[in-house]
Amino acid sequence: MAQAYSFLIAGGGIAGLSASIALSMQGHTIKLVERQAQFTEVGAGLQISPNAWRCLRAWGLEEQLKEYCSLPSALVARRLQTGRKLAQIPLGARCIERYGAPYATLQRADLHRILLERAEQSSLFTCATGFEAVSATVQEGMVVADVHGPLDWKGQAQADALIAADGVHSRLSAQLFAHAPAMPTGMTAFRGMVKQSALPEQLRSNTICAWLGKQMHVVTYPVLRGEWLNVVMIVQDRLLMRPSQRGPADMPATLQSLTRTSPIYQELHDVFLAIEAHGQSMQGTKWTEWPLSGRKPVRSPAELVADRAVLIGDAAHPMVPFLAQGAGMAIEDAEQLKNSLALHDKELQAALAHFAQMRAARCAKVQRQSLRNGKIFHMTGLPAFARDRAMQWFPGAAMDKSWLYAHGPQPVNMA
Fold first, then answer.
1. Rounded alpha-carbon distances, angstroms, from residue 135 to 180, 202, 232
2. What is the mean pLDDT of residues 296-301?
3. CB-based contacts of 81: which residues, under 8 Å, 6+ apart?
4. Average pLDDT, the chain
5. Contact 336/328 with Cβ under 8 angstroms?
6. Which is nearest to 160 in space by CA: 312, 3, 19, 35?
7. Does the record carry Flavoprotein as a key word (predicted)?
8. Percent of the chain with pLDDT over 90
9. I need a surface site. Which of 107, 223, 250, 289 has the fewest CB within 10 A?
């Protein structure tokens, strides 16, 4: 009979909840601590590519996802300044046929709620909000974590292993692995959403569209069954003419500053104005501004696992969003951790080491390709001209990531 272990998971975001689901399915006991007093997943939309969807399907979540997601018909690249189409590849049925799963988009809050409800279905899962694991040590074959809670409460929690899923600014990553803190990338994301019914017919969309500009780009795609349009603008900080900040964004002033150096196609500009008039982001604001942080790509498996502690999600491999794989890689982490524990069911540390071996190279490649995409998206001058020609001539090579979508964690056959 497979050995059941106890896991302390630090962080209740997409990574932490995914790990809770995957491991409780195998009979492992989960204690999750989340620093926030209430779950308040921030951000607007996210993309779930086939590699992540297959994992979610294995956890029994496909029908719930279909209830809330959108299934874009195509991936399109356009010039930000003129709207000229550079390339297009179909998604929809072609994606399902080729990769065995759809390419979907949905609100981050919807995915988080689906994961939380699924985790709470297991009697092996318990969750404490308002508590944070601030440090940990291994003592006599157990992980002992120092936990801080409300009203200056301090105590300890024990488990067979610790999973640090506490995000890009992970305290446990720094304490257990001596990782350097995440640093500003020099880019800022602006996010907003608007009901498609509030847009003129010609501005409504059922595609994922990347609008490529000078040192900036915009991505638009449908969410919530196509009823809303999600908009993300990522800008090199030097264009802002001011320090970036986290919180509500003054989009009219931002656009006025940006259009001096990178004009925005009128139809897309009208979408921005519609969000200003009718849209929402979070916390009651129309737009939010979010400086992007990151670390260097993973260099070895030793950066992901140390003794009985493992890093997953942004705590392990933060990445810029130019491949839309932040959530996808966190979901893959959880599925691979489940598979590694099934393969080494009586050797916990061997299972964690196997997990790190299976994840390090793939996550590093996604991190590197994300950084590369950012440079390509923000090209100017002759490099941008060459990029546009390449995308027009070879759209599949430029936009279809079969190395990413066709692969990922594979189930372990224990027969």
1. 16, 53, 35
2. 96
3. 213, 214, 262, 263, 264, 265
4. 93
5. no
6. 3
7. yes
8. 80
9. 250
How far is the C-alpha of 102 from the C-alpha of 99, rounded, in Å?
Answer: 8
How far from 388 is each of 77, 268, 292, 357, 378, CA to CA, in Å? 9, 19, 26, 37, 12
Q: How many CB atoms lie within 10 A of CB 184?
A: 12
Task: Please give the structure tokens belonging to residue 239.
Answer: 């264009």
Contact between 233 and 279 under an 8 Å Cβ cutoff? The reply is no
Strands (DSSP E) found in 28-124: 29-34, 45-48, 74-79, 85-90, 104-107
Amino acid at 333: D
Contact assessment for residue 391 and residue 379, using Cβ atoms and an 8 Å cutoff:
no
HEC string of 239-299 equals: HCCCCCCCEECCHHHHHHHHCCCCCCCHHHHHHHHHHHHHCECCCCCCCEEEEEEECCCCC
Tokens of 395: 């759209």
Q: Which two tokens stand for residue 129?
A: 């909000």
**Adjacent-strand bridge partners of 30:** 7, 125
Query: Is the pLDDT confidence value at 414 over 60?
Result: no
The Cα–Cα gap between 74 and 63 comes to 22
> Taking the mean position of all CA atoms in its chain, how far away is CA 359?
16
What pLDDT is recorded for position 183?
A: 92
Angle between helix axes 266-278 and 251-258 (nearest 10 degrees) is: 160
Tokens, residue 279: 């849209």
What residue ranges define each of the domains in the chain, with the CATH number in brackets? 6-182+294-406 (3.50.50.60)
What would the pLDDT profile of 71-87 be if each residue is shown by its tens digit?
Answer: 999 999 999 999 999 99
Using a cut of 0.90, tell me whether the model's pTM lies above it: yes
pLDDT band, very low/low/confident/very high, at 222 (cuts 50, 70, 90):
very high
pLDDT at residue number 42:
60
